[in-house]
């Protein structure tokens, strides 16, 4: 077990930068998600970790070894990494057993030991009875579990996941997430998980690196990202909520409800403005209150357990709130704001 | 295109393994030798004497009346042949692809058969169909009087056969385009209340016009380079086209003979390459981004017209395929030409003689089988690593190398043969071994010519492979050669064998290249049929041709068995 360090990693294709100056330190045994919209460079980072791509600048260090730098490149074959692909990448001409056992065969592990480890790996993903099937005879979820078993059979230092749930339907994803969590707990391997789905990243990862346009936007635990996003882009990207333009206020601090109401009232388009994030659960409907804001209902959408209410402030800004009861469109209400988080403007 | 550049390209993407480096250097040398060297040698020969003097060989070629006559004849026969090919190919293409006709696969197979039958066999079978000595006409008692002319010995006869032989090319180009037209387009037009006629004129024809022109261009260049048909039908009538002119000139002597022939070859090669470029350009242009579901392709209901149309197709196939082949079979069963076939005259003597008699016949069989088998084997072994390396190159470099490999196949066989004569007329340097006059020179020419035939299915299968499959093996710790053997080979094996079988199928019947490169003791099947017919032994020639057709049909059926496991388009008569 060793620490994985990305030190100023750069990558460009034909002169176009895809990853810019990325610094990350991943502790041994950590489950890390790389999260970002498509085209943000997260898959490229994963491919550089795997060794499919070399780095254009900076270096990737694993323990005491430099895996990649502009002068050095340890080939994929020699890295002892595991990977789970979006397309599963199971070899269709091999049975489940042969697929899982192939890494051991390449390493010339003795047959007896090989069989034992294949059995153990299949047991972890609960596919022992499918050992002699071909991949084509399995369902999508089962295939991904075979791929998982294959990636762990050599007890790799690091397991990489490239959007492994993207091809599965929604109810299967929940089960697979549970499988991944159990797998991480049991093996204790370092895991790097690429996804564009924030709820997947939030529920699985110990730490999340959010990326946008090849740059790291924020690096922290899911709770930190949710409660204290750095800038407006991230606030819009993670969780639900409303980003409001208010009168100038220092970034990266909590703003109390009363202060916030003042800031909203002081805001005018011709003065310097800041952005704050208001989560819907911090908006409370009240009957007559001095510090309350007057809002009108713009839309009301039934979501099952509650209603999503989109409110319009006096100056026309929109605010998302939750309600247990439906509300009439255009009706006027009073709300009290709990707290808000002030944001850096997007650079 | 230098190894250095290749190396840099590799470094650009991923790291380059030492295994891969050696593999790519070896294959670079191979492509250079097989694909680029022959064309370069020809170019040098044709240009080296082209000083701007009136006595240079090239000037002599251009001044000679025979050159211009042959050129005119070539254009006439190929032009008329293309017209016939377009009519036949489009007719079959539209009916077989767009309607609910029954037994589609069988129609396609039968219509593609003429393309795979060697031209000299096609010519021979049509010769048996007409003329005063035709055994089948004699059997039916309707043979023309002795001394009346053989109608096939004419420009129009040549054009007809060129048309039939290249009609499948037009058919294929059209069919590929038609298959990719989604049913939605038709339904949208129907919802706009267009009549069937308007749908044809406004939707279908514009969408496949470029495909038809591209197919026609291909038919034209293929006819221009065809040697077997004008050799069997034109030479006896003194009707000479460019490939036969080269063949005849090679028989002559003189100081400048080779240079003059090289000059002539350059003319054909340039014409053909220009045609190929035109065809490729058109094909690219015809690739409309077709939106919609392609799951269900277009289909017109024929209703009461279905049976009449099927009968019409059957009649056309009877005329272009069944009748000549039947004539060929009848000819192989009579004791001598001019005799009718009946219970008294039927004899298998020709077959016994062919199989039983030691000598030139069995030798030709052995030679051709040997050449075809080893060409297929060597090319299969080369295609695997070559395809693997090509797939790792950037798109543009890959396209350039693929076209270089395509050149020896695209230029007419007669031109390639001249290039090989020029290359190997002198003993090889250093080892002082002469390949000229051995089977070795034919073997090398086949390797050069058919590399692209074998490589194409392999490349197309590899490009459809999910790259993650190999990456997964890389993560498992497998080195390049191990990945090639464990992952890539098993997954592309059907394409790999299809490539090998196609090479075997084409090279076992090959005539054009071997017609110039053969020597006594080194005859091939194609040369044998040609020589037997030339010396008047048509019955024996027919017997061999019957076996050849059986062989072709058998191999084609064998390939069809692979079809479900192959990428679309690998087997021409499928899909």
From TrEMBL, chain A:
The entry's cellular-component GO terms read:
ATP-binding cassette (ABC) transporter complex
Q: Recorded GO terms, molecular function?
A: ABC-type transporter activity; ATP binding; ATP hydrolysis activity
- In its UniProt entry, the species of origin is given as Marinomonas polaris DSM 16579
Q: ABC transporter domain: which residues?
A: 4-238
Q: What is this protein called?
A: Iron(III) transport system ATP-binding protein
Please give the InterPro entries that the UniProt record associates with this protein: AAA+_ATPase, ABC_SmlMolc_Importer, ABC_transporter-like_ATP-bd, ABC_transporter-like_CS, P-loop_NTPase
Q: Does the keyword rRNA-binding apply?
A: no
Keywords associated with the record: ATP-binding, Nucleotide-binding, Transport
From TrEMBL, chain B:
Compartments (UniProt record)? Cell inner membrane; Cell membrane
Assigned GO CC terms: plasma membrane
Main localization is: membrane
Query: What InterPro entries would the database entry show?
Result: MetI-like, MetI-like_sf
Keywords of this protein's UniProt record, alphabetized? Answer: Cell inner membrane, Cell membrane, Membrane, Transmembrane, Transmembrane helix, Transport
Entry's Gene Ontology BP terms = transmembrane transport
Q: Transmembrane stretches, by residue range?
A: 20-40, 75-98, 105-123, 158-179, 227-246, 258-278, 311-334, 369-391, 403-423, 435-455, 487-508, 539-563
- Can you tell me which residues the record assigns to a coiled coil? none
Q: Does the keyword Transmembrane helix apply?
A: yes
Q: Domain ABC transmembrane type-1 spans what residues?
A: 71-279, 365-557
Q: Is Cell inner membrane there in the keyword field?
A: yes
Q: Which domain of life is it from?
A: Bacteria
Family the UniProt entry places it in: Belongs to the binding-protein-dependent transport system permease family.
PANTHER family according to UniProt: FE(3+)-TRANSPORT SYSTEM PERMEASE PROTEIN FBPB 2 (PTHR43357:SF3), INNER MEMBRANE ABC TRANSPORTER PERMEASE PROTEIN YDCV (PTHR43357)
Output this protein's name: Iron(III) transport system permease protein
Organism name:
Marinomonas polaris DSM 16579
Tell me the organism's taxonomic lineage.
Answer: Bacteria, Pseudomonadati, Pseudomonadota, Gammaproteobacteria, Oceanospirillales
């Amino acid at each position: 077990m060793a620490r994985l360090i990305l030190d100023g990693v750069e990558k460009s294709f034909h002169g176009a930068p895809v990853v810019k100056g990325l610094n990350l330190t991943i502790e041994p045994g950590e489950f890390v998600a790389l999260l970002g919209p498509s085209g943000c460079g997260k898959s490229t980072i994963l491919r550089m970790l795997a060794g499919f791509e070399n780095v254009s600048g900076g270096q990737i260090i694993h323990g005491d070894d430099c895996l990649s730098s502009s002068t050095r490149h340890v080939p994929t074959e020699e890295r002892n990494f595991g990977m789970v692909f979006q397309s599963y990448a199971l070899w269709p001409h091999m049975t489940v057993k042969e697929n899982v056992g192939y890494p051991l065969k390449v390493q010339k592990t003795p047959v007896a030991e090989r069989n034992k480890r294949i059995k153990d790996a299949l047991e972890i993903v609960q596919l022992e009875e499918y050992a002699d099937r071909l991949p084509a005879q399995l369902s999508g979820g089962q295939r991904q579990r075979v791929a998982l078993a294959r990636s762990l059979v050599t007890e790799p230092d690091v397991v990489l996941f490239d959007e492994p749930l993207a091809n599965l339907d929604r109810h299967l994803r929940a089960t697979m997430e549970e499988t991944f969590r159990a797998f991480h707990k049991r093996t204790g391997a370092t895991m790097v998980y690429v996804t564009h789905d924030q709820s997947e990243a939030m529920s699985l990862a110990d730490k999340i690196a959010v990326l946008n346009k090849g740059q790291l936007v924020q690096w922290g635990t899911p709770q930190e990202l949710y409660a204290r996003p750095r800038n407006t882009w991230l606030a819009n990207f993670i969780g639900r909520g409303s980003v409001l333009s208010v009168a100038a206020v220092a970034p990266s601090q909590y703003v109390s409800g009363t202060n916030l109401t003042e800031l909203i009232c002081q805001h005018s388009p011709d003065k310097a403005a800041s952005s704050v994030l208001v989560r819907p659960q911090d908006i409370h409907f009240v009957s007559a209150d001095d510090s309350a804001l007057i809002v009108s209902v713009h839309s009301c959408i039934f979501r099952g357990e509650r209603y999503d209410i989109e409110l319009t402030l006096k100056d026309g800004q929109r605010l998302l709130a939750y309600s247990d009861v439906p509300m009439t469109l255009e009706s006027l209400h009073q709300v009290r704001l709990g707290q808000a988080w002030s944001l850096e403007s997007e650079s | 295109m230098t190894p250095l550049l290749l190396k840099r390209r590799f470094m650009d993407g991923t790291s380059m393994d030492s295994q891969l480096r050696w593999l790519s250097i070896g294959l670079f040398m191979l492509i250079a030798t097989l694909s680029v060297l022959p064309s370069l040698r020809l170019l040098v020969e044709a240009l080296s004497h082209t000083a701007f003097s009136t006595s240079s060989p090239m000037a002599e070629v251009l001044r000679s009346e025979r050159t211009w006559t042959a050129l005119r004849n070539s254009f006439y026969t190929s032009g008329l042949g293309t017209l016939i090919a377009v009519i036949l190919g489009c007719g079959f293409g539209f009916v077989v692809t767009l309607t609910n006709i029954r037994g589609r696969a069988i129609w396609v197979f039968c219509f593609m058969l003429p393309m795979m039958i060697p031209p000299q066999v096609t010519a021979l079978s049509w010769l048996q169909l007409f003329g005063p000595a035709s055994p089948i006409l004699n059997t039916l008692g309707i043979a023309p009087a002795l001394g009346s002319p053989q109608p096939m010995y004419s420009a129009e006869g040549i054009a007809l056969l060129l048309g039939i032989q290249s009609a499948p090319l037009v058919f294929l180009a059209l069919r590929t385009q038609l298959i990719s037209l989604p049913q939605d387009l038709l339904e949208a037009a129907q919802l706009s209340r267009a009549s069937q006629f308007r749908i044809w004129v406004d939707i279908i024809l514009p969408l496949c016009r470029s495909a038809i022109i591209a197919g026609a261009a291909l038919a034209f260049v293929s006819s221009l380079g065809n040697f077997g048909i004008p050799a069997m039908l034109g030479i006896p009538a003194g009707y000479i086209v460019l490939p036969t002119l080269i063949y005849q000139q090679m028989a002559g002597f003189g100081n400048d003979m080779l240079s003059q022939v090289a000059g002539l070859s350059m003319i054909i090669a340039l014409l053909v390459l220009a045609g190929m470029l035109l065809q490729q350009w058109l094909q690219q242009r015809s690739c409309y981004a077709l939106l919609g579901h392609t799951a269900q392709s277009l289909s017109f209901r024929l209703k009461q017209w279905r049976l009449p149309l099927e009968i019409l197709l059957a009649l056309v196939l009877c005329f272009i395929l069944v009748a000549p082949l039947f004539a060929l079979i009848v000819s192989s069963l009579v004791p001598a030409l001019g005799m009718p076939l009946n219970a008294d005259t039927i004899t298998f003597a020709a077959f016994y003689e062919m199989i039983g008699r030691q000598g030139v016949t069995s030798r030709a069989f052995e030679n051709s089988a040997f050449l075809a088998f080893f060409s297929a084997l060597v090319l299969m072994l080369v295609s695997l690593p070559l395809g693997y390396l090509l797939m790792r190159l950037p798109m543009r470099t890959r396209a350039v190398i693929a076209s270089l490999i395509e050149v020896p196949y695209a230029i007419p066989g007669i031109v390639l043969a001249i290039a090989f004569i020029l290359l190997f007329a002198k003993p090889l340097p250093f080892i002082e071994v002469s390949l000229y006059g051995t089977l070795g020179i034919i073997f090398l020419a086949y390797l050069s010519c058919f590399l692209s035939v074998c490589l194409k299915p392999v490349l197309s299968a590899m490009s459809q492979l999910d790259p993650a499959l190999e990456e997964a093996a890389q993560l498992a710790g497998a080195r390049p050669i191990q990945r090639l053997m464990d992952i890539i080979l098993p997954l592309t094996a059907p394409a790999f064998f299809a490539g090998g079988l196609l090479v075997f199928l084409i090279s076992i019947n090959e005539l054009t290249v071997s017609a110039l490169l053969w020597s006594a003791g080194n005859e091939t099947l194609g040369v044998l049929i040609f020589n037997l017919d030339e010396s008047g032994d048509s019955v024996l020639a027919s017997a061999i041709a019957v076996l050849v057709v059986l062989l072709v049909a058998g191999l084609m059926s064998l390939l069809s068995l692979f079809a479900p496991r192959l990428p679309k388009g690998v087997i021409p008569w499928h899909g």
